Amino acid sequence: YGKNTIKFLRLHREGKKHFVKEVEVCAHLRLTSPQEYLEGNNSLVIPTDTIKNIVLVLAKKNGIPSLEQFAIDICNHFMTTFCQVAYVKAYVQEVPWQRLHEDGVPHVHSFICVPDGIRFCEAEQCRNGPLIVFAGIKDLKLMKTTQSGFEGFYKNEHTTLPERHDRILCGELFCKWSYGECKDFDFDCIWKKIRECILEAFAGPPDCGEYSPSYQKTVNCIQMLVLSRVSQVQVIEVVLNNTFYNVVDMKNLGLTNDKEVLVPVEAPYGSCACTLGRK
């Protein structure tokens, strides 16, 4: 049991310069006894309102140096403070505020919300067990307008999809990875590096791109690049929900439409997923 959607903004001031972290936290506990379920005995139950207040107090006292560290702080607090807690799990996701720039100059106290993917993390711990930390990015919308195709697939009497060697590749990406033994990691730096790997593997070189024979192959390329460059990552999961676009037939309008005007296919849409880890 626990408290979901604990939303707050943490403002940190260093003179005139301000820093913001707006997050949503879900904190769940499992107690050493199920007596509140079986007997109606609430003597060990930490109220969810108390859980919410603890999260806010930790944000006030410790700040949010990184999402992962804040999730670790939540786990540590419940494990060290309450002997009746057998398991704790903290999920934290961030609102994508970025510092506003005017003529290239960073503003001291103004920000803009840029929805270019939502950062999240998760930490969980069992009593007398290791602390496990996950991190990720979700709702990251990506598109490339060429250098993608889908050919040579299995066909039978139900197949109507034509083969394509040049199509738009567009999708919404979810990526979640786990760390090994957590040491003094620079979680912010690692997250940015993994995001760069995702973009690089999806798009290819900026001057020419890289051909994608399928959504599945693109997912695997993302995972392989992350594992090759980020040694702290042990397992990486990628889900790519793809959006299809159909070319509008403009013959009745007396026009030739050479893939210049397209409409998205709202539903159903395809999806592919893969989890890849080190040996």
Automatic annotation (TrEMBL):
UniProt: urate binding residues: 48-49, 150, 167, 216, 242
Q: What is the annotated localization of this protein?
A: Peroxisome
Q: Which reaction does it catalyse?
A: urate + O2 + H2O = 5-hydroxyisourate + H2O2
Give the pathway annotation: Purine metabolism; urate degradation; (S)-allantoin from urate: step 1/3
Origin, by domain of life?
Eukaryota
ATP-binding found in the keyword field: no
Q: What class of enzyme is it?
A: oxidoreductase
Enzyme nomenclature, EC number: 1.7.3.3
Positions binding 5-hydroxyisourate in this chain are 48-49, 150, 167, 216, 242
Q: Name one GO cellular component term.
A: peroxisome
State the function annotated in the UniProt record: Catalyzes the oxidation of uric acid to 5-hydroxyisourate, which is further processed to form (S)-allantoin.
- By what name is this protein known? Uricase
Which organism was this protein described from?
Rhagologus leucostigma
Task: Quote the gene name from the UniProt entry.
Answer: Uox
